[in-house]
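User: Could you write out the 3D structure of this protein bound to guanosine-5'-monophosphate? I've included everything you need below.
Assistant: Certainly. Input first, then the structure.
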Amino acid sequence: MARRRMIYEGKAKVIFEGPEPGTIVQYFKDDATAFNNQKKGTITGKGVLNNRISEYLMNRLNQMGVPTHFIRRLNMREQLVREVEIIPIEVVIRNIAAGSISKRFGIEEGTALPRSIVEYYFKNDQLNDPMVSEEHITAFGWATIQELDEIVALSLRVNDYLSGLFLGIGIKLVDFKLEFGRLWHENGDMQIVLADEISPDNCRLWDSKTNEKLDKDRFRRDMGNVEGAYQEVARRLGILPESGPADVQGTDTVQ
Ligand code: 5GP
């Protein structure tokens, strides 16, 4: 097989040119970072689990009519996705106060918010992903008003669907981060689609009964058993890799 061209190496994924034009391959690493790269580590098997979890959730969302970049999983650590023009905005949807909103407004973690809150952050590591308003997004041309309307509508649909899905397996969807891209069709039409990944790396997931954290906060806050928490999410979703936890290290097919 020919060597693939690497397009970009991120903190948790490597992006390669796909086998056909208009496709790319996302390779999921075990590397974990937090606080804009100040904390670094490895979570054994994380890449395999996130590849699986994101595949499952993106497929379910596609079935619900939410357009995503996801095409199919290729192997333990890789998935094929459509090449999109990434909009440089992180959309955070919050249902329960935790993390930065608790810090910023002095709200105790775990407090239910009066309604779901949507926030935007400008994707820029050098600037530490600053929070931005719709005014900034449209004035600086990162997205148009129409695109932003579509992004908010899709984000709220994703929140409704995933909140219900997780509640059904005894998990509260506290908050999560989404990214969107522009998918250009051959006839010149453009469609806003969900991109990146949905996994315990970018969601806060708490056990419904005990509030035990089942997400990357275990790494960020040195709580231990990070692998176990990601495995528990996969287990409850019914998608633990074929032969169980022993299988999560996965094969390194990266070339
Ligand atoms: P917070 O603003 O409280 O730190 O994060 C809110 C939610 O968005 C959390 O679920 C967190 O995992 C996710 N999130 C925010 N920024 C990022 C980011 O840069 N990378 C990842 N993986 N998740 C993020």
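The longest helix spans residues 145-167.
User: Perfect, thank you.
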